[in-house]
Design a protein that fits this description.
single chain; about 260 residues; six-stranded mixed sheet; six-stranded parallel sheet; binds NADPH dihydro-nicotinamide-adenine-dinucleotide phosphate
Length: about 260
Amino acid sequence: MSESVHWQDVEAADYGVIGDPVAHSASPRMHAAAYKEAGLSYDYRAVRVPSGEFDQAMRHLESLGYRGLNVTVPLKELAYLWGEGGDPRMGAVNTVRFEDHACVNTDAPGFLRTLRDQRVGPCRVLMLGAGGSARALTVALADAGFEVALYNRTLTRAQELVRAAGVRVQIVSSPNAAGCGLIVNATSAGLQGEAPAMDWQSVEESALAYDLLYGKPSLFLEEASAHRLRVQDGKALLVAQGALSFEWWTGVAAPIEAMMRAIA
Ligand code: NDP
């Protein structure tokens, strides 16, 4: 676990991650390892920013000389509204830059990068969940030619996602993965040690089960392994999104191996 400090008490640094809570974030050690490997003398801090204090905190961090920030729950939507250049279909960003007040979502292209690494090409996908991550990944998958079937325990939230994202997605009434080459758990169930409802009898043996969760055992992936599926946890996405943020800020190719080792 990294140290997190309330934004009013934080020291000057170059980059950081803001959220609430944020002490659990692995980003500080991952980015510190990347700077060391790339020979860059930057500092990266975890900064606690309650959502009601977002605007004040951003002004303060900019005045302290921060160059850019990663953004996590519950601030990604606020960061999208703060910055220029975010994708309105996603409505959330995880990376901002102060120099030009620009923002970008690196979770979405980072996720596609991890699928390429796993040799998963366009196919039918069962997406579980309808929160911020599910929305960004659904847009990225639809753009990349995947056929997304969306299941959420609260149907109205899935409908809201489709309306807001404006991409072609099929809302399904049960977590059935027949014909799917990929099943993505984009729910936050794992944070409570739970797994979302899933019809494991319907899965194809060749499918990849992907949980965005990292840093905790995943009951969803345990269930997938018991059904002999290939599995992927959220560490690969953590590194991929971090690498894209690093490159967007610094213009230097990210040292992926060092970043991966730092969070292993
Ligand atoms: P949100 O809070 O925006 O959305 C949560 C979703 O999970 C909702 O659809 C909710 O359903 C669903 N859900 C919560 N509990 C359960 C449950 N017990 N059973 C079924 N569904 C449930 O979360 P985010 O989209 O921000 O994050 C989702 C997950 O992705 C988190 O675990 C987060 O840590 C992880 N993540 C990992 C990243 C990485 O780098 N590896 C990057 C980004 C996210 P309902 O609408 O019915 O309430």
